[in-house]
Amino acid sequence: MDVLMLSRLQFAAATMFHYLFVPLTLGLSILVAIMETKYVRTGDKVYLRMTKFWGKMFLINFALGVVTGITLEFQFGTNWSRYSAYVGDIFGSILAIEATAAFFLESTLLGVWIFGWKKLSAKAHATVMWLVAGASSLSAVWILIANSWMQHPVGYVIRNGRAELTDFFAVVTNEFAILMIMHTLAGAYVLSSFFVMGISAYHLLKKTDDEFFTKSFRIALVMGVIFTIFVAVEGDIHGKDVTQKQPAKLAAMESLWETQTHAPVYMFAWPDEENERNVIEIMPIPGLLSLLGHGSFDAEVQGLKDFPKDERPPVLIVSMAFKGMVGIGTLLIFLTLFGLWKRDKLQEYPLYLKIMMFAIPLPYIANELGWVLTEVGRQPWIVYGVMKTSDAVSPILQSQGAISLTAFILIYGLLGAVGFYLIYTAAKKGPEKTEA
Amino acid sequence: MVLQNIWFFLWGLLWAIFFMTDGFVFGMGTMYPFLGKTEEEKRIMINSVGPLWDGNEVWLITAGGVTFAAFPDVYATMFSTLYTPLMLILFALILRGVSFEFRGKVDSPKWKRVWDTTIFIGNFAPALLFGVAFANIFQGIPFDENGIFQGTLITLLNPYGLIGGVVFVLMFIVHGSLWLAIKTQGDLQARAIQTGKRLWPVMVGAIVVCLIASAVFTDLYDNYLANPVLFLILVLAVAGLLGIKVFMGKEAWFKAWGCSCLSIVGVTFFGVAGLFPRLYPSSINADLSLTAHNASSSPLTLKIMLVVVVIFIPIVLAYQTWAYKLFSDKVTEEDLSHEEAY
User: What ipTM score was computed for the predicted complex, to two decimals?
Assistant: First the structure.
């Protein structure tokens, strides 16, 4: 493998591993803050126990999210130095703002939250958790602004052999960014709600502590209902925007080869990139892609053949990631709606509870697939239409890339196993019976 | 020019603050296997930095981020040429972070032994490698006109680089021992104080060797000779070093720790001021060196970033100071019984 492929794999491994933890940090921090606020408001100890129980899982998860995030920032320098030098003027400044304005607050105050139970008043302590939750979502906003600039660069000129900032306001109000922020945060909130509902379902089945887990389930259910639906509606708008700004990505998502009006969506299609066609096409729904992309059944949609071969993303990966994400998202809507409908008698539906327990991995998969679609779908560009990924890689040795990739896989594999084990044991054990 | 010079100064300042804040955590972790005799002492040591290390580490992210934003060419060249040491630092920091968090989560001696080892590696390795890396930057890195590193990890382990590494490790150990003197009591505190007192002369000796070696291996002094006023930085560093000794004698641990902060900032700035305006000198050809003037971002980016930093860094310092005050008490047995403690 060459340095380019090694660096791509390393970045993919590092981001995807990092993103196993980020969404739960984003959503669970809010849920824990809500629980703690309920405790402050009502004085009901069950909410304090909830705060501590879910807080414990949040902390294990947070630790892994942070340590894996640090390596990401530096990989732009280590593995993508040509990229860093070319776009640092814009991309680098957004990352620096993220650290200064959001990540500092999140990390400093989380320490205060963990160790500050006896040092702060209950109200102040709950406020700290809200600040942590707010700062982590704000941190995501800045990172997504940076990523969106790679997807749809704005507010720059090419000068002195690099991209230079001309309009900061345009960069932070990038329409692509706004849509992506909403989609990503909503996806994270969905994941967090399923995490809490799934673990609660397990305990409701075991009848460990009915009041505790009914309350937990219902708080998460509210978040789940709102954001499973939001993510779908917003995803449709986001899709229309992608159609405009990244037509090759859209064509790859639906493996559409020929430019056509009344473009269909296939329930399932298996692309054959070599021969520029689909070998399997099942259940076409005529005009649906035209409708989804342009809001009208007879609109023309650009096909992959409109793009030179070396400017097309890998069609198979992109289309499968898209179908998987949408499929899971749809399933999750039904699961939360059923929960909403039967919210007062969840225990009478053990099968539903069992399904919810085993549904925990689904939003994780959907979130990861979303990123695969976003990032692989942008290929071969690292900055869409501006810089190719192959021109972005560092002039490092193949051995360096190979050794560090191996080290990443080994260390992350071990950490993942340990982290999963710790969260699993904590979740299974259940909350403390009395509050110390 | 002015903007670029301001950013050069801020770049040095952010690295200095990172060494100052995370330095005592590195020092604590390096002493950890030697000072913590009992399980309780070990936990007290970890919990002495527990509420703060995470926020401290963000100074590294910010120093890195600011290098990326203000001097993208430096960021690109520095991290790709120092690929292997940086990867080692990153892996060490990963281990450190999860060790603190995971160690107490399972009640088994074997489990704890594993994380005890990683706490040591995760703190000692970055302390040493940051020292080696910065000393190498001070004397110049062998990179060519394509930004390609002409050497190996061994190239970096040259005499001057190693002196830098030793200086950093010693400074952080003394810094950490003073922190433990503030945060602990009893036998552990006595051992920490003893370590600090014994290592202080060694550290001063190493710094003196480093200052002399700098005249041999680097041209850091050129700036000083051209602008003798810069020697004030050295005076500051020396005052800090002496202050540590004086306040250690008076058992004023917090003041001694403050002087240690000052000396770390002073020593860092000794190098930074000598480097100016170079950020990343090439030892192959001085014309290839990346400077604040030839490797900076556009004026617009520098301006926007300046506004951001001027607004937010004071805010960050304010709430971090608040957090430090909140957790300024000694760590006691009672603290360890809280289920949130590490």
Answer: 0.90
